[in-house]
Design goal:
This protein starts with a helix and ends in a 29-residue tail after the last helix. It is built from 7 helices and no strands. By secondary structure, it is an all-alpha fold.
Amino acid sequence: KLLIDIFSEDKNILKEIEGQIVSSLVEKINENIASFDSFFKLQSKKSDAQIITSKATILNRAKKLMADTKSDLNKLKKIVGKDNFQYTNLANQIYSFVNAAVIVCYNKEFEKNNVERSSYIELLEDASREMSNLDLSIKKTIIKNLSVIKGEDSTDCWFCNGECQTSNDNPLKIQMHKM
């Protein structure tokens, strides 16, 4: 910030400083993503019972990924803008991992008919809140997964992922789709 103020009149130096700051932020965020990716790959190889036992650890690491990248993501957004590809790509990666962590654990518990939903709901609500003002491709998926985990009845068409609504009177009556 101080360097930007000092060199604010020289556009070339200012662009160079901003470029270095962006590179540093992207590198730091990518390190956090890579660390979670390694952790998640190891967890995913475990048995169903081990994943269920490790649920708290997996979800806490997903929360930690959001917390550890939040400040740097906000700084990046401030510099490059919320519609910048670099920013949206990194944000999508982070929230995709959060979603994946929830889904892997939830599905394993669901298969065993022993689902404790509150931790899933809390994490997806946190992610949803953080993404509320962003246009990210993972956003709709997280909102839909949150709705399903909460047990809210969805009238979204299963064939088009919600682009058409089913009838509330007859949830099986849907618009025909071309194949």
